[in-house]
Amino acid sequence: MSSHREAPEISKDPVADGTDVYAFRSPDKPDTVTLIANFIPLQQPDGGPNFYEFGEDVVYDIHISNGGRARTDIRYRFDFRTVVRNKKTFLYNTGPINDIDDATWNRPQFYKVTRTEGRSSRVIGSNLSTPPVNVGPRSTPDYAKLAGQAVHRLGSRTVFAGQRADAFHVDLGSIFDLGALRPFNEAHVISMPNMNGVNSVQSYNVHTIAIQVPISDLSRKNNRPTDPLRTDSVIGVWATASRRRGRVFDRKQGRFVNRGPWVQVSRLGNPLFNEVLVPMAEKDEWNVRPPEDDRAYAKYVNKPELQGLLPALYPSVFPRLAAYKKTRADLNAILLTGIPKGVVPGFANYTGPVQADMLRLNLAIPPSQDPKDGGLVAGDAAGFPNGRRISDDVVAIELKAIAGATIPLVDPSYTPDDAAAALTDGTSNTNSPLLDHFPYLGLPGGGYQTVPGTAAAS
After folding, report:
1. What are the backbone dihedrals phi and psi of residue 235, each rounded to the nearest 5 degrees, phi first?
2. Contact 203, 165 (CB under 8 A)
3. How far apart are CA 60 and CA 150, in angstroms?
4. Could you give the percent of the chain with pLDDT greater than 70?
């Protein structure tokens, strides 16, 4: 997965578990950048009566580095509170919710947004409403209207926080069954018939934090960069979730209370970084460290475990990859430093020598008029790994990269195996269609409308 249950400890704390981070020039408002961080993975739409919600005991941050040091130069913090209107009922809603402020919604959430730049912090929005979850046609009869009421303008910025359909797609059932890709089943060491991929997050929702800001809000010089080859045109983006250091049960209040400073418990920049590259025993530590310390994990990028597994799992398919023993400078550039100028004509997203897991977005590259879900690998410089758009097929892109398709960028003597350019898990977004406007992610699946899948024993 991009980062759904990617480490042992955070998998036990889904409210703080970041699933995906996106950063892109807004296609309908190209003078702005949209930043999205999703949390709370694999939400069943029918999960009542205690439906999914943001944690009151968690702060959610979107970080921007624009100084070339892989440190937080700008931060947007989202802090939530919950109201229980009727403490005598177990119901999430006591009637149809027709408007976001209806008293029939018994457990609304509100939040504030704080922008920090350097040592200066200010609240840019407070008491902002989230929408309810999509309960069903009786409880939330016009969900699109409710979601629209939760889009808030904060001067030149726009924010949204609430439930959305998960647009990430991946065949978890196959990939974690000994590294199998269903479209290539016959070539696997344990051969089975080829078939289409199965989207394992179909019908699941996530909770989204989205903010759309002017480009000048993020750039180093508070301007709108126009030269894609200048280093000050590039920003780094990642998201975190933090909890208080201590948690104790207060008998007088009859509930747990939290004390002490905020401590980071979850982090996400590039998709699949912690999931696929970092060994299991180090995943929890990775989650609590800042990106500027990621030099400790460079060895797993330079010699990825999956590179060695692919030739073993698919005998005779990757002979050139199996024979390649050099450091993976291509992956190091893509994931840890950004791509310097001169590698891809007219393109760069290099942020400096500090090796750090961040999405790197070149602010000078406009939205694509012909977006390709293969991103930069498919010739679309506005797509991953230049930031990340919601439609980018990051699983296929990263499979191709690890299989050697990007090695010639830095080592022209290498010829990739024929299979490298074809690798895919065979999935696509099978949840609600994406929107053409903020917050872009599709409407969440409804509890009443969702039909649970059928489990098969064999």
Report:
1. -120, 155
2. no
3. 18
4. 98
**In the structure, what pLDDT confidence band is assigned to residue 8 with cuts at 50, 70 and 90?**
confident
The average confidence (pLDDT) of the chain is 95
Q: How far is it, in rounded angstroms, from Cα 423 to Cα 397?
A: 8
pTM attached to this predicted model: 0.96
CB proximity list for 296: less than 8 A, separation 6 or greater: 289
Is 458 inside a domain boundary? Answer: no
Residue type, 136: G
Query: Degrees (nearest 5) of the Cα angle 250, 263, 21?
Result: 120
Decide: 431 and 424 in contact? Cβ < 8 Å.
no
Half-sphere exposure of 13 toward its Cβ, with a 13 Å CA cutoff?
A: 18
The number of beta carbons lying within 10 Å of the beta carbon of residue 432 is 17
- Token pair recorded at residue 108: 């609304």
Count how many Cα atoms sit within 13 Å of the Cα of residue 417 in the half-sphere of its side chain: 24
Tally of domains within the chain: 1
Measured from the Cβ of residue 444, the count of other Cβ atoms closer than 10 Å reads: 28
Q: How far apart, in whole angstroms, are the C-alpha atoms of residue 255 and residue 281?
A: 33
- Is 156 among the domain residues? yes
Report yes or no on 94 lying in a domain. yes
Answer whether residue 430 is part of any domain: no
Both ends of the chain: CA-CA distance in Å? 23
Q: Is the pLDDT of residue 223 over 90?
A: yes
Reduced to 3 states (helix: H, G, I; strand: E, B; else coil), residue 353 is coil
Lowest mean pLDDT among 7-16, 289-298, 370-379: 7-16
Burial class of residue 346, CB neighbours in 10 A (0-12, 13-18, 19+): exposed
d(CA 167, CA 164): 9
**Nearby residues of 116 by Cβ (< 8 Å), 6 or more positions away:** 72, 74, 75, 77
Give the range of the structural domain holding residue 371, as residue numbers without chain letter: 10-422
Q: What is the pLDDT of residue 259?
A: 81
Tokens 């609590």 found at: 288
DSSP class of 183: G
Length of the chain in terms of residues written: 458
